[in-house]
Amino acid sequence: MAALDGPRWGPKSGGKPKLIVFLLHGLGADGNDLIDLAPYWASAVPDALFIAPHAPQPHDGAPYGRQWFSLSDRTPVNRLAGVRLAQPVLDGAITAECAAANLPESAVVLMGFSQGAMTALYTGLRRAVEPAGILAFSGMLIGADTLAAEIAGRPPVLLVHGEADEVVPAEASHQAESALAAANVPVESVYSPHLGHGIDDAGLTAGALFLQRVAAPFVAA
Questions:
Q1: Does pTM top 0.85 for this prediction?
Q2: 3 in a domain, yes or no?
Q3: Which family does it belong to (predicted)?
């Protein structure tokens, strides 16, 4: 299985990382799309290494960009099959990066936008070693029907969504919030009025506070 590669940033503190934050981009982008979040969030978690991997597949709907899985067929069955293929690729990257940094695999936060959020939620809730937290921006919970049988951990989750999202409707995060709460996953949410398919200052601030909180056990030492 090919290793994931992409831009990385930090730690801001200049020391060895105590936490790894994976930034998972959306359909048709690549790791460069989200790495600029690192300097902003590093103020909250200065001991974190931020990694923004390029998704494993070329975007099959354009001559550029990457994808975690194909959405040429957007049916629920295809989305589930696709994210199941992406899961072991992301799992392998987490294991490899934690080993390289000499960190436990629990010292990981998965952040994703859109398709990256879908991949982060699906993988993070099914990892044998649960991540410290999951941030899902403008995403959805794929595989909600099988979650009860497959869930391996209950990391805290933050859902952030624009109420005017024209690509992935905010209802997807409302549904995810209900499903996660029913599975006893600690979940909180931020919904931004008038925001489309993107990230605004309210989401960035909520993400920084969430990162600071879930990182605390790892950076206290």
A1: yes
A2: no
A3: Belongs to the AB hydrolase superfamily. AB hydrolase 2 family.
